[in-house]
Structure formats: C-alpha cells, structure tokens
Amino acid sequence: MIEIENITKSYPRGEGGVVDALKDASFTIAPGEFVVVRGSSGSGKSTLLNILGCLDQPSSGNYKLEGENVARLDDKALARIRNFRIGFIFQSFNLLPRTTSLENVEIPMVYGEGWVDRKKAISALERVGLAARGDHFASELSGGEQQRVAIARALINNPSLILADEPTGNLDLNSGREVMRLLQALHEEGRTILLVTHDDQVASYAEREIFLRDGQIVSDRSQQARAPEEVMP
Amino acid sequence: MRTTELFTQAIRPLGRYRGRAFLMMLGVLVGIASLAILTAVGEGTKRETMARFKNMIGTFDTIIIRPGGPGFRGMPTLVNVPQSLRFEDARTIAKLPKIKQVVEVQSAFDIDVKYRDRQASPAVFGVGPKWLSLRSEDVADGSFFTEEQNNSLARVAVIGPDVRKDLFPDEDPLQKTIRIGDVPFQVVGLLKSRGAGPTGAQLDNIVLIPINASARRLFNRDYLTMLMAQLKHPKQGSAVAMELTTLLRDRHHIRPPALDDFTVTNPTATMAQVLQAGSTLQKILTGVSAMALLIGGIVILSLMTIAVSERRKEIGVRRSVGAARRDIVVQFLLEASIVSFAGGVCGVIVGWGGMQIVTRLLKLPPILVWQPFVFSILLSLVVGVVFGIYPAWTASRVDPIQALRS
Q: B322 and A84 in contact by Cβ < 8 A?
C-alpha cells in the first residue's frame, strides 16, 4: 500500500543551513494495516503525515502509493490522489464554517467526479449516525459530531487510505471512543489506517507502532491491537 | 459539470458573507450605473441630434446657400435679406457635375393663410418641385406639385399637419382653396409630420407652394432666401462648399477684400461639430464614471484579498480533500466575477431607472438605446475577472499545510 524509501524532508534555516524534519525514513505498510505513528512534538510526525497525504513533497527519497511513485507528480495529479485515494481526518475537524454538514461532506465530490451526488452524501452521514444533522451548520454541532462529519467527508470518495492526525485530541472520552469505533470499522472493511497520536490508549488500537524521534524512525514494531471497549472505561 | 459545481461553491460564500458581497457589488454598481446612464444619454443625444438635422434638411448630403454675408443672423426671409441670390445662380449650380439636384427656396413668415373663416400663421415656402425627392420622402396624402405645375405658375399648395389641423379640423383639405395673403391656392397634398428641428422648432406648421408661383404670383420677388444643393457623393461636402463659394463670388463679381454676400454651410459638418462638442463633455464624464468603476474594481480586489487571507483555512481544507490549485483559482475568480456581474446588473437597473427619472424631470425625449446597457453588463464581468485575478492567484498559492496547522 505504502512504500517509502529514504525519505528526507529538509527546511532551510538561516545562513544557508538546513534542518531535517524527516531523515532517511523507510517503511512499508501493507493494505489493510492499522498503524499508529508516535513521537513527541517536533519529531517529524506531521511532516511524515503530510508527505504520505500528498500535501507535501519530500526533499529526497521515493514514495510509492499503491505501486505508483508519487514523489514527483504535479499539483493536479497529487490533488487527484488526495481526492480519490486518501481521506484526511484532523484534530481540529476542519469543517468549513457557515456551511452545512451535508455541504461539507459533498466537497470532495466537487473536485473529484465534478458533480455532487446528494444521496451519497446523505448515506455517508447515515454511516456516521448524523443523517438528521445534514442541514446543521458545523458550528451548531458538538465536537464529536463535527469529527464524525469530517469522517463522512473523508469517506465520500471511498479512499483506501485514511490518514488521521490526533483525531480524538479535541474530544471528550465518549466522543473519542465513538470516533475510534468508526476508525476500527473502517479498518475492518480493509482500509489502511495511519493514525498519529500522543495518546497511549488511542495508540493501543493499532496493530503496529512506528516511533519517531528527531525526524528518524527509532522503532517500528507490531503489537496486539485491542478493541475500544477494552481500552476505554 | 465540474464548473457548475465550482460555480455553486463560489456562489455559496457570497450568500454567507452578505455584507461583504454587498459592499463589493456596491462599488461596481455605482460605476456601472453612472457609465450606463452617461453612455446611454450620450448615444441618445447623438441620435436625437442627427434625427433633428434629418428632420430639417431631409438628408445628410445637402449644402445650404443663403443670401447675406457671414455677419447675417437669423432665418432669412424675403424682407430681411440682400437680394443677392438669384435664380440664375441656382441654374448654374444645378449644372455642376458634383451636384445631383438643387431646390430653390423663398420663405416668408408673417403671412396669414385662410380657409373660409379659419386662419393660420404658418411659414410659407416657395420651393422647387424637387424638394420632396431631395428629402427622399413621400406626401401623406394627395401629391406634391410637379415640374409642369411649377412651369405653368400653377397656384397649388402642399400643407403641413399643423396647418391642416388649424384650417381643416374636420374636413378633407384636398382640392380645397386656401388664401395665402390674398392669393388663392388649391391644396393638392398633405405633408407627413417631421417633428422637431435641431433648435426645437416645429417643422410641421408650413405651407409649400411652387417656387415660380411664389416668385411671380405671390411675392413678386426674383431672388431667393435659400438654395439647397444636393451632392452626388456625400463625402465631397467640404470640397463642393469651397467650389460653390468660388463660383458665387465670381458670379457676384466680388473681389478681395470684399466679403461674401452669401453664406455656404454644410449642415453635416455643422452637425459633426455639434456632436463633437457634445462628445468632449461626454468623454470627460465617461472618464469620471470609468474612474468610479475602477474604484469598484479596487474594492473587489481588496475585499477579495481580505477574504482570501481570512479563508486560508478553508482553502487548506479544500486542497486537502482534492482541490488542485487550478480549482481554487477558478473558484475565487468565479466568486469575484459573480459578485461583479451582479453589481453590473443592478447598476444597469439603477442606471436605467435613474435615466427615466432624469429624462422625465428635464422633459427630454425618451432615450431608446439598449447597447450601452448590454455593454455595461459585459464590462462588469470583465472588471470582476481582472480584479479577481490577483486574489484568486493568492488563494491558489496558500500553503495547505500551514493553513491547516493554524
């Protein structure tokens, strides 16, 4: 599913020097894996996620997504990949303000197929249990509900890869649990899930843990995933 | 399809940030409204001026020669002009190769016209029989007098609509005998209405009689008050006017430093001057409203730029779910164009309404032109695109990673 090879991302820093946000990262993720990426802030987690999500491009190294080398694609091709193959879930939900839940869920269809299938959007909302909230503005929803709308949006074009950046970071325990249950269900459908988190409990859902420190992968190991009911009180 | 969806995405924020959209529209609205009014009034005035000249002379290819030198003012009549313009002059001019035809004119104003106990005070003109063909017009009823009637000194008359109203309010004037001064004339034709002339004078209160009858049976004068010379080629106006001046000075034995005892005018050139004077003012005012439109464009530019910086996060989200840079450009460009177009449409409506009020208040004739309005609407679209380019480009350069982090 994902193959990265010696990925480095450097940023220029005063007087001609560079700082490596990510150094020589290499790993392979098989289709259907549930992987958690951990590390303290500044360890390069976000940079890795942005590169995997085709929002950013590496300074060097190769990135193959489903066998296709995407490290050197142009803006339009990358946009297409983000649209059809990747679903993003953010810590701060990132729903559009003054826009209804349904309209938020429909946005990827605008840039993808080029036409909006409202029924599809409604069924995506049904899937996250919010069919009744379709005409509510994002600002009228609770945090947990907003994140579920965001998940519906991530799913609308049926991507095989879900990238989640601290998806429960802004949520209370119950809402967080519900979000994790949804992610778990997506995993069970065979989607590949890559989750960035600080939270030990959230991390324990994954089957594999990649640990970053100072831009380098310091450990990459499999673990026994636990069901949400086991982790959350 | 994709564009339709982008259109929807572009139109939504306008509904949701109404205050801002309204301000953006307002700038364009003011510019477009004033531009539409000015161009429409300008165009309308031009057409009106041309129409009035046409009403008076009948064509745009006729040169007018009047007796009296450059100092002479007012409408020449048989009692107030030098007796310098003669029938011989007319005959000579008619033979010139560049002249199609001439019409001799004698005019008198203070003369009563009667039918039974009714009385009217029209302008009475003795005119050559080609008067009607020079104007390429037709009579409303009856017929115009012929060459033969002119030659045989027939006492026949053709009357204008106002005279008909005064003398024959409820009977058919044809074949009736009217008295011009004390001389009886038989009415043989009715003129069509000509409306107003360039100075607003009514052109319908007239009686036309054959020039020969006028000269020998009514006024007993053998000089003319006007000579109309139609050109074969309309563009030769100035050249022919000079040629006629030379010819007439020669015929009248005028040597320098003596001044002309006649005046040659080329009404088409005069009209061009009138239009030119109007169009200078027009140009200045158009410049002012173009400035207003420019300011409208700048309002769009700045408010859209502010909107882009406020909506960086939205842009980041859209990019993350699959919008390419191009989609963002198109979307923001559409947003600017829609709002500007809407401003243009409203501006044209306001401008049209304003024009109706202005023409009514100033009692101007209604202005019936639509082109300036269509043009204004298209222009508003151009303004939206031009002033939307920079914000749209800025929007497409927003770094989604930074935007999403904020």
A: yes
A window 149-168, beta carbon within 8 A of B: 153-154, 157
Query: Which residues in chain A are contacts of B323 at CB distance < 8 A?
Result: 79, 110-111
Identify from B320, B330, B401 which residue to disrupt to test chain A contact, counting A C-beta atoms within 10 A and taking the largest count.
Answer: B320
In a domain, A210, yes or no: yes
Q: Which long-range contacts (CB under 8 A, 24 or more apart) does B305-312 make?
A: B305/B390, B305/B391, B305/B394, B307/B13, B307/B17, B307/B20, B307/B391, B308/B332, B308/B391, B308/B394, B308/B395, B308/B398, B311/B13, B311/B395, B312/B398, B312/B402, B312/B403, B312/B406
Q: Is there a cis peptide before residue B257, judged by omega within 30 degrees of 0?
A: yes
For the stretch B75-84, pLDDT in tens is: 667 777 778 8
**Could you list the residue range(s) of the whole structural domain that residue A113 is in?**
32-57+84-231
Strand order in the sheet with A17-29: A17-29, A2-13, A60-65, A68-69
The residues near B218 (Cβ < 8 Å, ≥ 6 apart) are B124, B126, B180, B181, B183, B209
CA dihedral sign, ordered B254, B256, B261, B264: positive
Q: How confident is the model at residue B175 (pLDDT cuts 50, 70, 90)?
A: very high
Pick from B17, B327, B405: CB nearest A111: B327
CATH number of the domain that residue A203 is part of:
3.40.50.300
Domain assignment present for residue A27? The answer is no
Domain boundaries, chain B: 2-54+272-405, 62-232
Residue A6 lies in a domain: no
> Is B322–A53 a contact, with Cβ atoms under 8 angstroms apart?
no
Count of structural domains within chain A: 1
Contacts of B150 (CB under 8 A, 6+ apart): B128, B129, B210, B211, B212, B213
Which residues of chain B have a CB within 8 Å of the CB of A84?
322
Report the DSSP beta bridge partners of residue B142: B189
Global confidence as pTM: 0.74
Helix or strand (DSSP H, E) at B125: strand B123-127
ipTM over 0.95? The verdict is no
Structural domain includes residue A45: yes
Asked if B139 contacts B132 with a C-beta cutoff of 8 angstroms, the reply is yes
